[in-house]
Amino acid sequence: MRILVTNDDGIHAPGLATLEAIAREISDDVWVVAPETDQSGVSHSLSLNDPLRLRQVSEQRFAIKGTPSDCVIMGVRHILGDHPPDLVLSGVNRGQNVAEDVTYSGTIAAAMEGTILGIKSIALSQAYGPGGRGSLKWDCAREHGPRVIAKILETGIEPGILVNVNFPDCEPGAVQGIAVAAQGQRNQALLAIDARTDGRGNPYFWLAFAKARFEPGNGSDLKAIAEHRISVTPLRLDLTDEPTLTRFAQAFAE
Asked: Is residue 187 a known part of a binding site?
């Protein structure tokens, strides 16, 4: 199996090294194509007005001055053009990608791009807690990742589907199992604006999350992570809502 590994945190991210190690437990044919710099939150964007700069870091490892989606396209169509990958793995992201994160995440977008190109694709993320980004428990993803990926591949991924995997903020031995979960939904009242002033008195702003109690819905990826379970969520490229499609078709036919 030929595996293409990418991410949105950049070529030097510890999560990428973790995913490389996971991939090498599955295959000895692993290629890495990742962004030169952190591309978190760029979603499924493409570089249409800037050239893509390609740099070979080492054997079978490349950096692209572009987005995660650019990296997958370059990997599949250019670097591995004569022998495309059988699997795209994206991550391991620094922080969970659950609920609405799915729409913003460059990690998820890379897996989406792989799926668009007809390649089985899985996105992987490691949650962190109150200790912040400096205390991520990468060993959780490292230990459990290979068997989760193996089970997903054994079960099968249908065309047009990608799989979103999130590892909880705990040590490997504290994981309470695997939950096949739906995409959750946060309380949007938690989204806040942090207004500040620079040294010259000019205002600037940070997007932030307010600290408040929030109970995630049962069966959701948010609930799984809160309960120290690994969440596995299949996502569809086709965003069409069938019930509304039928309702609108009936309305416009009148």
From this structure: no
